[in-house]
Amino acid sequence: MAQFTDVYDCDFNDKGTVLGKGAFSIVHRCVNKATGEVCAVKVINTAKVKSSDIAKIEREIAICTMLKHDHIVRLRNHYKDRTHYYLVFEYVSGGELFDEIVTRSFYNEKDARDCMYQILVGLQHCHERNIIHRDLKPENLLLASREKDAPVKITDFGLAVLMENGPSYFGFAGTPGYLSPEVIKRQAYDTQVDVFACGTILYILLCGYPPFWDDNQQALYEQIKRGSYDYPSPEWDTVTPEAKDLIDRMLTTNPTRRITVAEALKHPWLADASVPSTVH
Ligand code: ADP
Ligand code: MG
After folding, report:
1. Binding site membership of 42 for ligand 1 (Cβ less than 6 Å)
2. Which pTM does this prediction carry?
């Protein structure tokens, strides 16, 4: 069976090829020897992990294999040897949405609309397949290029789960500031947790800071459970009521009353979103 190094050139010792680091992995730039295609390989050292972690990597591979969409980073190949897993993804060159928000401070409504629309279109592809991402946040949304209106792509299905038998408690997973009330309450949950994270992302896009925040994690979780956020003056005064209405519907505490992805795509605020025509 072909090994990663048979098919790809990658200098793991060159720090310049590191594209990013996550909690469990290092992502390097690599090149397909036969085609010349530049890719991003997520390398996971299995020497340091438990057997339950191996199952999680296998789950990430299985889920990524199910997803083929312009707004989702595509898994090209995967390999494993005695010490590492290698997940080879299409290379996305524009960096994290997180850094773009920091650079711009915040987005105007048009740019936020186009961005959120693409995230929702990609997420709909996941939800139609009963896949819950569980870790949507600006660090896991990549920009396809450095151009201003670059397409947005969802990445990092490392915490994603397949919902085979409807809502269930799939465990406490995600990133504190983006967690939904139902996860914090350790109740059964479903794809609606991703919609809540989208509400948090949309809020951040429009003002540059999160809706729920406290240095103390318990206090943060209490805010989320209570649905306690507001739109401080003056920065929110100029934001349209339609944008705030969509945020409110996405941040609705009760997941059964929260807007779904399919409904959100029809929300008036997203009505004239323009999606980049050439998505690579
Ligand atoms: P983890 O599960 O460890 O968080 P990610 O899949 O989120 O790993 O990857 C970590 C970081 O690596 C991302 O936030 C991003 O900066 C970078 N990265 C991941 N995939 C790609 C890609 N396909 N193209 C370019 N950079 C990527
Ligand atoms: Mg990540």
Report:
1. yes
2. 0.95
Q: From residue 204, how far is each of 92, 106, 155, 207 by CA, in Å?
A: 22, 7, 19, 5
The single-letter code of the amino acid at 110 is K
State whether residue 91 is helix, strand or coil.
Answer: coil
* Beta carbons of 251 and 229 less than 8 angstroms apart: yes
Token pair for 198: 């989208």
Condensed to tens digits (0 to 9), the pLDDT of residues 117-129 reads 999 999 999 999 9
Ligand 1 centroid distance, CA of 27 (Å)? 6
- pLDDT score of 280: 46
Instruction: Decide: 199 in ligand 1 pocket, CB within 6 A.
Output: no
Tens of pLDDT, residue by residue over 185-226, are 999 999 999 999 999 999 999 999 999 999 999 999 999 999
Distance 278 CA to ligand 1 centre (A): 23
Rounded-to-integer distance, Cα 134 and Cα 158, Å: 9
Catalytic residues: 135
